[in-house]
Amino acid sequence: MHEGINYKKFIFPIVAGIIIWLFTPLRPDALDPAAWHMFAIFVATIIGCITQPLPIGAIAMIGFTLTVLTNTVKIDTAVAGFGNSSIWLIAMAFFISRGFVKTGLGRRIALQFVKLFGKKTLGLGYSLIGVDLILAPATPSNTARAGGIMFPIINALSRSFGSKPEDGTQRKMGAFLIFTEFHGNLITAAMFLTAMAGNPLAQSLAKHQGVDITWMHWFLAALVPGIISLILVPL
Hints:
Blueprint: H1 11-22, H2 33-51, H3 56-69, H4 75-78, H5 85-103, H6 105-117, H7 121-135, H8 142-160, H9 174-191, H10 198-208, H11 215-232
Helix pairs in contact: 1-2, 2-3, 5-10, 6-7, 7-8, 7-9, 8-9, 9-11
């Protein structure tokens, strides 16, 4: 077996896709065969994402390729989404966010903030929110930002000060820092267009209604309520 590929897990999506494909309605007036074939590929792709014989991204690309090879969707229609600027905005932000994680830059920024402003517990809470605020524009996943960068630091800091959930001392410091970061992370996710993957989707939906929202428009609209919220949450 090739490393990274679990061939047995391909069985379920392939079998499900073939079975649905073979049950294509015979009457074209009942349902367009192309629509049924798309449904078959869609179900197979979803099952593949669940069983994960390959990473989800690879499964999605296989599903995309099959829709074109089977002539279910024309190539021009299939690649139309890649011309959406919102999609590329998300993609580029994800590339940058991976750089923050892989190089450890996000962790170093966080530790510098803790060093400068973490003399007291309240200051520590503000410093963590400040790091989240700086990282947010270039990290389009608030879950990855909080879980991948912030949580390990909060966990280490809390334990170094003797605040551990297993011995009942979590409210000594850890609970406060987690609570602060949780709410601060949600606020920063709403402050920047590129701070959460769902934001560009909202931008795209608004554009279809004739409302054009730029990165700066979004930021300026969210700046005042965002800053006020970030100041109040730790308090």
